[in-house]
Amino acid sequence: MNSVLTIAKREIFSFFVSPIAYVVLTVWLLFFGIVFYILALVFAQQAGGAETNLLTAFFGGTTLFYLPLLVFAPVMTMRLLAEERASGTIEPLLTAPISEVSVVLGKYLAALTFWCALWAPTISYVWLVARTGEHTVDWGAIGSTYLGLFAVGMFYMAVGLFMSAIARNQIVAAMLTFLVLGGLFVIGLAGYANVGDEMRAVFEYVGLWTQMAAFSKGIVDTRYLVYDLSVVVLSLFLSVQALRSDRGV
User: Where are the alpha helices (DSSP H) in 96-217?
Assistant: First the structure.
């Protein structure tokens, strides 16, 4: 456990001393700040006639929520192991007296920490909505929303870590992550097409679109959590196997 925390601290430190971290944070905050402002204007003009509320729309109610994730998730995870391999520091890391599992878990914990840091400022949006009193704040739904955000982050960070583990450089890792996550996003949209009920259910389940929409409405469906955790476990397992392949075990 100590080795996992040591690697996580090392990775978190390298995140926040690199310019890319602050570029990501700045662009992220600007983009979602503008989205929240636009949605607030739209809901203010609707004068309570909307079928949904501002926070539900912000957290997964529009494509403006999902599309940036397809860009930011690859950027956040592309360097985790691919950079180590490209810079040649992967060899000292693998020859150190730590297991591949500790390396993967440490890297993954760091990525999740950065993911949570990105979403932490959005709590101020909830505070603003609650303070104005123009929109009812369902605190149960808010709790499930952030649970959903964490579950999606676990999913995206795990997939990104695996792609970084098998890629030879950061650009390839980012492209692979984008293709996988983008493909799942498109599959989720296919659920809205004219397909059978069974296929629609499968598309919606795999695509994550309906997952975040459900969580933002206060619906905690354990099927989605099982799906996310299954992908996380599989991705981390494959990442460990990729490192063992590099070590020649």
Answer: 100-119, 123-132, 139-166, 170-190, 197-207, 209-216
- Our CA dihedral for 102, 107, 113, 118, rounded to 10 degrees, sits at -170
Tell me how many degrees the CA angle 84-175-20 measures, rounded to the nearest 5.
55
Q: In this structure, what token pair is assigned to residue 164?
A: 């970084």
Phi, psi of 136 (to 5 degrees): -75, 130
Q: What is the pTM of this model?
A: 0.87
Do the Cβ atoms of 94 and 144 come closer than 8 Å? no
Among candidates 204, 45, 152, 31, which has minimal Cα distance to 54?
Answer: 45
Nearest Cα residue to 227 out of 141, 151, 149, 147:
151
Give yes or no for a contact between 216 and 55, defined as CB atoms under 8 angstroms apart: yes
Token pair 């878990």 is at which residue? 105
Residue 237 makes CB contacts below 8 A (sequence gap 6+) with none
Average pLDDT over residues 129-140: 73
| The pair of three-digit structure tokens given for residue 122, joined into one six-digit string | 């959005």
DSSP string, 137-162: --HHHHHHHHHHHHHHHHHHHHHHHH
Residues 76 and 160: beta-carbon distance below 8 Å: yes
Q: How many residues does the chain have?
A: 249
Q: What would the pLDDT profile of 49-68 be if each residue is shown by its tens digit?
A: 555 678 888 887 777 888 88
pLDDT digits (tens, 9 = 90+) for 146-163: 998 999 999 999 999 999
